[in-house]
Structures are given as C-alpha cells and as structure tokens.
TrEMBL record:
The lineage of its organism: Bacteria, Pseudomonadati, Bacteroidota, Flavobacteriia, Flavobacteriales. It comes from the Bacteria. This is TonB-dependent receptor. One of its GO terms (molecular function) is siderophore uptake transmembrane transporter activity. It holds the Pfam family TonB_dep_Rec_b-barrel.
Length: 944
C-alpha cells in the first residue's frame, strides 16, 4: 500500500522535528554559576575560571561572580586560579538543573601555584619549575612604601641590596655574585626588566637601569629569578632577573587610586599620587593606564626637594581566539638625587663624627644655579648649567609591541620588542671628605698658580665674611692661622667635585620565541637582539663648601696686601672649572643571542630542562684625549680669576675601540614532583659576563684603547625543595656560585698635579656557598607567619688590589694580595621574620629584618656592624572601595651602615684601608653610608 505525502505535509513535519530538537537541546543545556572568595570571605576579582575538556574560559567580576551558559550534560573539571591563591580543582557533573558553586580559595603563601614567565622558556606552574624564583603580587608589593627598586627587594632571600643612596645609585646582587658591582655599577650582573625585556641594554659609571625604573600601581607582580638559569634567559646578565610585570586584561572597568603622605627623617615630607585604570574598549580590545607623581623632601636634610616627578605607563591589548597583541609604552620624567657618605670614627663601633648624624645628615652641596664652561666647545663659549638640587634628571620614552599566537600542531610564537630613548643628566656632587686648612690641597686645587697668603671665605648667599686666614706657613709644615674672629667649621673645607654628566641612549631591544610541543618534549628556540647608540660626557670641577652637616657654598679670594685680589672660586663657589674629570665618548653596542631550550618529561613527575645560549656582543666607539686649555689668564684671559685656568678640553685625538665578544652559556636542571605539593629540583649552569662600557670609559686615560676586556665566567649550582600544603609553604635552596676574571679598578687623586686617574685593572676570582629559604605558616585562617633568609660564605679565591700610593708616579706602586679573604658587603646571615593578622576589616603586619656583620673591604680591615629593623603596617578597609593604611619603615629609627668609601680624604677609596692602617690610625675618621631613617606613611586607597 502506497502512502502519498504532499509537499505541505513534508514541510509541516520537518518544522515539527526542528522545534522538538531545539526544545530538547535547550532543555539539555544548562548554566554553571558560582562565587569565588578568599579565606576571609572577601570576593576575589579577576579569578580565572576554566572548564575542561571544553577549554571554556571566563573570569570573576568585581563581586567574585562568574557564569558559564549553554553547557551540555556531562562531567567536567573546573579549574580556578588567582594570583596569590592556591589553584582549585573539582570534578562536577551537569544534570538537568543549573549548578551553583560557592568556592573558597586559600592563600598561596609564597606563590608556588603561580604561573611564572621569567627564567623559563615557556610559562609553567612555579612548583613544576626546576629553578629558584620568588613571586610577589601587587598587594604584597604595596605592604611597604618603598624607597626605590632596591629597597623593594630587601625582603627577598639570597639578595644583597643596598638602597642607602635612595632610589637610584643602588646595589643589588644575588648569591654573592657581586664583585664587579661597584658603587656606580650596582646592577652589573643583573637584568632589571619590565614585561620581559631589559630596561636598558648598557651600563657604565652613574648609568644603571635603576635610574629608569619606578614602581607604582601599574605593576601587577614581580618575578625574581635567583639562580643560574638567568645565564640562558637574559643577555649578558648571569646574576639574576628582576621582572616587573604590568597589569593585563580586565573584563570590566576597574581601577585603583592612592594618595600617600609621609614624614621621614627629621620630619621631612613626601607626597605621592598613584593610580591605574583598565578595562574593555570593545571588540576584544582592553587597556590599562597608570602612573604616579611624587614630591619628596628626602629622608635626610637638604635645602632642596630630593625628588620630584613621575611616570605614565599604558598598554592596549587585543585578544583573539589563539593569542593576543599588546601595544605598550612608558614616559618617565623624573628628578631625584642620591646620598653620599657620612663621616665616622671608631673602627670597632662606628659612630658619626664632626657633628654629623647617621639619620639626618646628607652632606650634599646646597642648591644654586651656576654655569660651567663646556670643555668640548670652549671656542663657542658654550656652558653647562649646574644646579645640585636637580640631582639626576632621568627621562625614558619607550614604546613596544608584544605578540602571542598559537598555531596548529602545537606550534606557538611570541615576539616582544621595544624602542626607547633615554637621557640621564647628572648635576650633583661626588665625594664629601674633610680637607684641612693645613692641607695645601685646599688651595692649589683651585687651579691658582701660588695661592699662598691671606685668604677670605665668604658665604655665597649672604656675601658675609665667614673667615679670614693666613696660610703662609703650610708649605713649611706650619699651621695656618685665623686673622680675625671668624672660623670655618672643623677648620676645614669639604673635598667635593661638582659632577656634571650627561648620557643619552637610543635603544632597540627585542626577543622572538618559537615553541613546539612534541611527544614528551617542549622545545623552545629563538633569538634576541639589542642595539644601543649612546653618548657620554663627564666633567668634574672643584667646589668650595663648608664641612658641616648643612654645608654652605663659599666664595674664596686671595687678598694679599698691596696685590691684586685673586678669585679662587666664582660667585657660586665653583673652582677649577672642568679640571678634575673629562670623559667624552660615544659607543654603539650590538647584542645578539640565539637560544634553544627543551623541557623533557622523562616520567609523569620528572622533568629535565636543558638550555643553551650563544651570545655575540660588539662594542664600537671612541673617546677623546684631553689636556688643560692653554691661555694666559685662563679662559677669560683674566689673571685675577684662577678658577678657569685648568679647564680640560679635547686635543682632537680620538682613541677608538671595536671589540667583539662571543660566548656560549648553558644550563640543565631536574625537577621531581614527588607529590602535587612537594618537589625537589637541582640545576647547574655556566654563564658569562662581557664587560660593560665603563671598561673603556674608565680606563685608558689619554692612551690608546689597545686591548679588549676579559669575559667573566660564572659557574652556579643549586639544589632545593618546594613544599606547599594547606597551612605551610616553603622553598629551601642550597647554592654554590663561582666567579672568575673579575676586573677591579679604583680612581685616585694625585695632589701633585690635581688630577684624577684610574689604577690598572686587576683580575680576580671568588666563590660563594650558602643556603636560602622562603617559608610561610598559617596556623589560623587570619594569622600568617613568614620566615625567609640567607646564610652564605663568600670568599676570595685569588684577589689582588693595585695600590698607587696616591700618586700617578708608578715607582712607589705596589700590588696587595688578599686571597682567601671574605668578599665585602655580603652578610653571612640575613633574615626577615614577619607576622600578618587579619580580622574583619582590619589587617596588620610586623616585620623584623636582620642584616649580619659584613666586611667593609677586601682587605677585611674592619667590619660593618650588624643591625636590625622593624617595619609595621596597619590597614583598615572601610568597604569594597575605600581603605586606609599606616606604614612605618624602620619603626625604631635604628642606625645601620650599608657601605664604606674609605678614609676621610679627598680621592680615598675603600681598598686603601688595610688592617695595618686601622691598627696604626685608631682615631682616624672614615666615610660610611648609613641606612635610611624612619618613614611613616599614611595611604588612602580607592578601588572600583
């Protein structure tokens, strides 16, 4: 029997079937909702929510909520992660009804669950990485009001930091890798980075990356790589990586603004505004904009604002199905200064001398507006403005692109590149030693031919006479005498140089990484390129300044009876224009690296990391030879003005350099995950450090640059464990670091011709062995104890120092041997212990920081004493938007010493002091750099 169905009936039936299918499908698909909170019942914003095996991804909103719609029945694994919290995993089953979850994430005390990006060829969970790395998220970084980058890093184990100079001119080293990190090259072995690329490609005297880095709310987290993996992860930086990572994608408009007011030292004020805002722009575009401005009178007493300025940082991010594109940039325009030393006596227990104070004395020249002839352009009468209140004017204009993309067959790529234009304009003073009025240097350094007789010292601001003396007997060994009732403080002047230095650099830095996953291997290979075109000009003049806690500029004249008045200084107190230092040079630096890494999963819980990196570095440039400008009466042809008689100027001869450095670094490591919360790791690396530009600029004074620098070799080994449980987390790492071919030089002052010269370079070696740890214990949900620290022993294997005996004459020179001595400035014990307590809307912390004794120089002549500091924080959260913090660093205003500059003489250096000198001169004064005094900060925050 045949059935005939007409067209109308077919269409009706098809429509019915379609409606039924849609209805069934709609009834089958359900929604998953949830709220994510922390242990204190506060919502977690921007927590990542991932549903496997669908790869569906979302994040929580400002109230901690998330929602995933249109899910089929079945079993899923939900994975929730949040920076600073332990990851959450749960198997769920979607039935006929919608599912709602309430999830509590416990704190990841030391961020072992964090996905790290630094020092690894591909992102991975920190617990699964075979390297020692510390991660600090934004809220931990905000627990203190930090005085610069080095200050922020003080609580991280294995690091030796010296932030006593302020925000810049700081010193940071890891695991005893510090020997060439001189006072003006304090980041010599390290790579200071923003978003995965170095801030600067080059370093030389008074030009280090910390000049161009400021921390503010735009930073989301900090990753610090301690160990040898830096040798294959960063160009020419085997001693560690410090990567400040900016904020990323926000699904909704969010922001935070802060007002900070502080009192520090002798009730000096600081004011800072800080803010960040970010969110969607539409069509899968997102943005972040942040920055700060601050005005700071300084931790110590000066007659000018110590810091003034700020920065703006931004990024725009475009997400697609398989990756993202990020455009980013920075504008830094900031004035800051740096503190020099303070005089002390008593080698066994140093205390401040000459009326100075470790907490409040800056001993910097006061601010004034002067003009110094530019030695390069004397025929054009060009001058350089000089105002010590400006310190260093740091400018950094940077723009970059960061591109991630995943491809088929487990291929992926990342390209990150940026261009920057940098300017560092120094107008400050170096050295602040006592120069007795009985010392001929006090007069002959002016550039005058024979400044003997009656001298008059006047205050440059008021014009009033301070003192009148007769120095006629000093050349015969007799004492000067005062001719009236006026007196100079401490019967001395300050031996200081008006230091003008201008550096510029145009830099391109990029890195390309290509990743391929294949079976049990995760291959990563790529290339890094750096190009820097830089200029350098340095000019040093003498300045007449009183030697007292609040120095005054002095106008000095020679007023012998019946003779013309001879001006030893100009009206601002400046003398010997451009006669102490002269360096004029330029350099082109090309750095290129090729690297290959493989992460081989030997077994489920055992991985092997192998890496090799080839680097080629080219230094090409020149520096001018110089000599004193020759003219009767000096530059102004006036025989009555002595201060312009010795200006150093180019001779027209250039000393060129063009050297190529290449080397191979490698590293291998094992990570064994015994359990999901317990891992053992070990690594070995051989790294290299090529010379920085200071090698050419600070050596070869007026002689050909006839040899290339020596590449330092750095061997590092580490063995450690990571343990992460519900109430306790810890990493413990033992390490050995050895450095070879360490080049050491010093500059000295020759009083015979009033010139500065550098001593011949010495090549040395050292080894450091130690144990570092980082741990946290939370016996209660609102109480956490943290304990981290380092025990290490850093020794000189072979170490010599060239002693020029204070003259350019080599006949009295000698080479001192200090092999087997302890490396200076590295404490054998450094610890931090803190307690954090939260209850309702209140939270607080107290941290105790202890720095053990340190040798003050390589001869181990004396030790810098140990010291302890307490830091306090109180926070009250009014609601989800408004909070107030009281932060106090160095709560009890403790004193401590972080650096040593040698004897209290102009041109002295730390290595001049030997045990015999200390024994023979028990009452001598010397120059130390104290830690910064107490600072109390009130911070008001608004979040939305």
């Amino acid at each position: 029997m045949n059935y005939i169905v007409n067209t109308s009936t077919q269409k009706a039936f098809s429509l019915f079937v379609l409606v039924v299918i849609v209805c069934i499908q709609s009834f089958a698909q359900k929604s998953l909702r949830g709220i994510v909170k922390d242990a204190n019942n506060a919502p977690l914003i921007n927590a990542s929510v991932k549903l496997m095996p669908t790869n569906i991804f979302t994040s929580t909103d400002v109230n901690g909520y998330f929602k995933i719609d249109d899910l089929d029945r079945g079993i899923y694994e939900i994975i929730i992660t949040h920076l600073g919290s332990k990851s959450y995993h749960e198997m769920i089953q979607m039935e006929d009804l919608d599912l709602t979850l309430s999830i509590i994430l416990t704190e990841d005390f030391i961020n072992l669950e964090n996905i790290i990006l630094t020092g690894t060829s591909f992102s991975r969970r920190q617990m699964e990485s075979g390297i020692a790395i510390t991660t600090l998220k934004s809220d931990k970084l905000q627990q203190q009001f930090y005085n610069g980058t080095a200050d922020l890093l003080q609580s991280i184990p294995s690091l030796t930091t010296d932030p006593s100079a302020g925000e810049v001119f700081t010193k940071v080293s890891s695991r005893g890798i510090s020997a060439s990190a001189q006072d003006d090259l304090g980041w010599y072995y390290a790579s200071l980075q923003e978003d995965g690329l170095p801030i600067s490609l080059i370093q030389h005297s008074y030009y280090a990356p910390d000049i161009f880095h400021r921390f503010d709310l735009m930073t989301e987290k900090l990753e610090v790589l301690h160990g040898g993996n830096a040798s294959i992860s960063a160009t020419n930086a085997p001693g560690g990586i410090f990567n400040f990572i900016s904020r990323g994608v926000n699904d909704s408009l969010r922001g935070e603004f802060q007002l900070n007011g502080a009192l520090q030292g002798d009730q000096n004020a600081l004011f800072k505004m800080d803010g960040v805002i970010g969110g969607p722009l539409g069509n899968n575009w997102f943005f972040n904009l942040g920055g700060h401005y601050r005005k700071d009178e300084g931790a110590r007493n000066t007659d000018f604002n110590f810091s003034n300025g700020g920065q703006i940082k931004f990024n725009a991010i475009k997400e697609n199905k398989h990756g993202l594109l990020k455009l980013y940039g920075k504008v830094l325009d900031d004035y800051t200064n740096r503190y020099t030393g303070v005089a002390a006596t008593n080698w066994k227990n140093p205390h401040a001398a000459f009326g100075q104070d470790f907490n409040t004395t800056a001993l910097l020249m006061p601010g004034f507006k002067g003009e110094i002839p530019d030695g390069r352009h004397l025929t054009n009468n060009k001058t350089n403005g000089f105002d010590p209140s400006k310190g260093v004017h740091a400018q950094d204009y940077a723009i970059g692109i960061d591109f991630h993309q995943n491809f088929n067959n487990d291929w992926s790529m990342r390209y990150n590149g940026k261009f920057s234009h940098k300017i560092a304009d120094w107008q400050t003073s170096i050295s602040n030693a006592l120069v007795s009025l009985n010392d001929p240097l006090a007069y002959f350094i002016s550039g005058a031919d024979f400044p003997i007789g009656q001298l008059v010292f006047r205050d440059t601001k008021s014009g009033s006479e301070i003192a009148r003396i007769n120095n006629s007997g000093i050349l015969a060994g007799e004492s000067f005498e005062y001719l009236d009732e006026g007196r100079l403080p401490n019967d001395a002047i300050m031996g200081t140089s008006a230091w003008y230095k201008k550096n510029t650099a145009n830099e391109w830095i990029d890195e390309l990484r290509i990743n391929k996953k294949w079976k049990n291997h995760d291959f990563n290979f790529g290339t890094a390129l750096g190009i820097s075109n830089s200029t350098l000009f340095t000019q040093g003049s003498f300045a007449y300044v009183t030697y007292e806690p609040n120095p005054r500029m002095l106008r000095v004249t020679l007023e012998n009876p019946n003779e013309d008045v001879i001006a030893l200084s100009d009206s601002n107190g400046l003398s010997n224009y451009g006669g102490l230092f002269f360096i004029n040079g330029e350099a082109k630096v090309r750095q290129h690296a090729i690297f290959l890494n493989d992460r081989y999963k030997i077994k489920k819980n055992l991985t092997l990391d192998l890496g090799v990196r080839y680097e080629n570095i080219i230094h090409k440039g020149s520096k001018d030879r110089f000599e004193p400008f020759q003219s009767d009466g000096g530059l102004d042809n006036d025989t009555n003005t002595a201060y312009d008689n010795g200006i150093l100027a180019p001779t027209g001869i250039h000393d060129d350099f063009n050297y190529n450095y290449d080397y191979l670094s490698y590293s291998f490591g094992l990570n064994y995950l015994l359990f999901n919360d317990f891992a053992i790791f070990t690594s070995y690396s051989l790294g290299n450090k090529a010379p920085e530009l200071d090698y050419y600029f600070n050596n070869f004074s007026n002689v050909p640059i006839n040899r290339k620098g020596v590449i330092q070799k750095i061997t590092q080994f580490e063995l450690g464990l990571k343990w992460n449980t519900k109430y306790f987390s810890s990493t413990i790492t033992s390490f050995i670091s050895q450095l070879n071919n360490i080049g050491i030089i010093n500059f000295e002052f020759d009083p015979d011709d009033a010139s500065i010269f550098y001593t011949p370079i010495q090549f040395n070696s050292s080894r450091s062995m130690g144990l570092e740890w980082e741990s946290a214990y939370a016996p209660l949900s609102n109480l956490t104890f943290r304990f981290n620290g380092t025990i290490q022993n850093a020794k000189a294997l072979n170490w010599t120092v060239y002693n020029a005996s204070g003259t350019v004459d080599t006949s009295d020179d000698e080479i001192a041997n200090f092999s087997n001595n302890t490396i200076p400035f590295i404490p054998k014990l450094a610890t931090n212990i803190s307690a954090e307590y939260k209850i309702n809307r209140m939270s607080s912390f107290m941290r105790w920081q202890h720095i053990g004794k340190r040798e003050a120089n390589i001869s181990n002549a004396f030790q810098l004493p140990n010291y302890s500091l307490f830091h306090l924080g109180l926070k009250y959260t009014m609601n989800h938007h408004i909070s107030a913090d009281l932060l106090v660093s160095n709560l009890f205003n403790s004193s401590g010493l972080n650096n040593f500059f040698g004897s209290n003489t102009f041109g002295g250096n730390a290595d001049d002091i030997t045990p015999d000198f200390v024994k023979s001169n028990p009452n001598a004064s010397f120059i130390v750099v104290p830690i910064l005094p107490r600072r109390a900060t009130l911070k008001l925050s608004y979040k939305f």
